[in-house]
Amino acid sequence: MAKTRGKDLSAISSPPRTGRGIKGEVSKDRLSRTRRSWNMSRIRGKHTTPEKVVRSLLRRLGYRFRIHVRIPVILSAPTDVPRPRERERVSAGRVRVDGRKQTPVERKKVRCRTPRFVTPDIVLPKHRVAIFIHGCFWHRHRGCKNCTTPTHQRAWWLKKLNGNAARDKLHQRVLRRLGWRPMVIWECQTEKQKTLDRLGQRLSQWIG
């Protein structure tokens, strides 16, 4: 102990733990890679607790509904249809309709394409209402305390989460064109009884 007195002990401390990024990169994630993988595997896409709470609320209000219905998206035929040879090139992802080569940068810019199906969490066909129940973290509920961004691999997370939010807006826009009335319910609105009471009033007014 006498030899280390007055010296910087950081040089003899244990080496930093590496994460899932570049080899040798210092990890900012406080969980191990195995634990983080296990946590991510436990996240559900359907039949979540907020979904069950909203279903129970709709039953108490006397509404009949269906869950996870795939609504087909019917697109009108475009006016400027490319010639057969150009159509083959476009489908192969090599050349655009105007005949110019498509660079990798242009292909990366396409983040959200028009979907063939939209699957709301809850559908009320009689009232033409489609309800989406979103997690505040995964779908970017602005102004919510749960809308955080991980510091580890921040650029990757921002791209994924912002892509989720962009896709949500696209789905709602497509449903409106098809004559549906989309409604978004956030996870934080289902956690307390006070917010649930307000949500029940909002559902009654929106559904009619």
In brief:
With 208 residues, this protein is an alpha+beta fold.
Explain this structure to me?
The chain is of the alpha+beta class. The chain folds into 2 domains: 45-75 and 114-208, 3-Layer(aba) Sandwich (Endonuclease, Chain A); 78-111, no CATH class. It has helices spanning 33-41, 49-61, 84-92, 104-109, 154-177, 193-207, and strands spanning 66-67, 71-72, 117-118, 122-124, 129-134, 181-186. The strands form 2 sheets. The chain has a 4-stranded mixed β-sheet with strand order 1-4-5-6. A two-stranded antiparallel ribbon has the order 2-3. The longest helix is centred in the last third of the chain and has 24 residues, at 154-177. The protein is globular and about 50 Å long. The relative contact order is 0.14.
Topology:
Layout: H1 33-41, H2 49-61, E1 66-67, E2 71-72, H3 84-92, H4 104-109, E3 117-118, E4 122-124, E5 129-134, H5 154-177, E6 181-186, H6 193-207
Parallel strand pairs: 5-6
Antiparallel strand pairs: 1-4, 2-3, 4-5
Sheet with most strands: strand arrangement:
1-4-5-6
**Weakly predicted, low-confidence segments:** 1-27, 77-110
Distance linking N and C termini: 77 Å
CATH level-1 class of the largest domain: Alpha Beta
What is the assigned CATH homologous superfamily of the largest domain? VSR Endonuclease
The overall strand count is 6
Proportion in helices: 25-40%
Q: N-to-C SSE series?
A: HHEEHHEEEHEH
Spatial extent as radius of gyration = 24 Å
Which sheet architecture does the biggest sheet show?
Answer: 4 strands, mixed
Number of helices: 6
The coarse overall form would be globular
- Structure classification: alpha+beta
What is the name of the CATH architecture of the largest domain?
A: 3-Layer(aba) Sandwich
CATH fold-level assignment of the largest domain: Endonuclease, Chain A
Beta fraction of the residues?
Answer: 5-15%
Mean pLDDT: 76
* Structural domains: how many: 2
